[in-house]
Amino acid sequence: MLEFEKWVARVLLLNSALALAVSLGLLGQRLDGAGATLVFGAALLGFLAAVFSLKRRRIGLWGGSLYYALQVLSYFPVDGGREFSVKAGVSVGVVLRFHTGVVVLNVIALALLAATGAVLVWRGRRERVAQA
C-alpha cells in the first residue's frame, strides 16, 4: 500500500502541475481573470498537497482530497448565468444535460478522490494499530 500512496502523491503532483500550466496560460486556451485565479488557487492547493503527500504528511492527503473534490462537478447554465468549473490538468467527463444547464461529472477526479480517500483510511487504520 505504501507504493500506492506514493503513486497517488505523484499523480497529484503531475495533475496540479498541469493545472498550474493551464492557469498561467502555458497550456490550452487562456482563461479569463476570475477563472484563472480560481484555477491557479486550486492548482496551488494541489501542488502544496502533493509536496506534503510526498513527505508522507496526512495534511497532504486531505489537501489532495479537497483539490479533487473541487473538480468533480462543473455546472454551466443555459441562460449564461453563474457557472462553476475548476478545470483539472486531465479530465474526462460525463455530461448531464438538463433544461436549466449542463452538469459535467469528471470521472478521473472522482476516481482519484476515491484513491486518495482509500489511502487516508489505510493510513488512519495503520496509525491506530501502531498506537495500540
3D architecture notes:
The protein is of the alpha+beta class. Helices cover 64% and strands 12% of the residues. It has a 3-stranded antiparallel sheet. Helix 1 packs across helix 4. The chain is globular.
Helix fraction, binned, reads 55-70%
Spatial gap, N to C terminus:
20 Å
Poorly predicted tracts of residues: none
Tally of strands: 3
Structural class: alpha+beta
Shape label: globular
Strand content: 5-15%
Biggest sheet, strands in spatial order?
1-3-2
Task: Give a quick account of the main beta sheet: strands, pairing sense, barrel closure.
Answer: 3 strands, antiparallel
**What is the H/E order?**
HHHEEEH
Summarize model confidence as the mean pLDDT: 88
Question: What layout of secondary structure does this protein have?
Answer:
Elements: H1 2-23, H2 33-54, H3 58-72, E1 73-77, E2 93-97, E3 101-106, H4 107-131
Antiparallel strand pairs: 1-3, 2-3
Question: What labels describe this entry?
Answer:
alpha+beta; three-stranded antiparallel beta sheet; 3 strands
Concise summary:
The protein has 132 residues and is an alpha+beta fold. 64% of the residues lie in helices and 12% in strands.
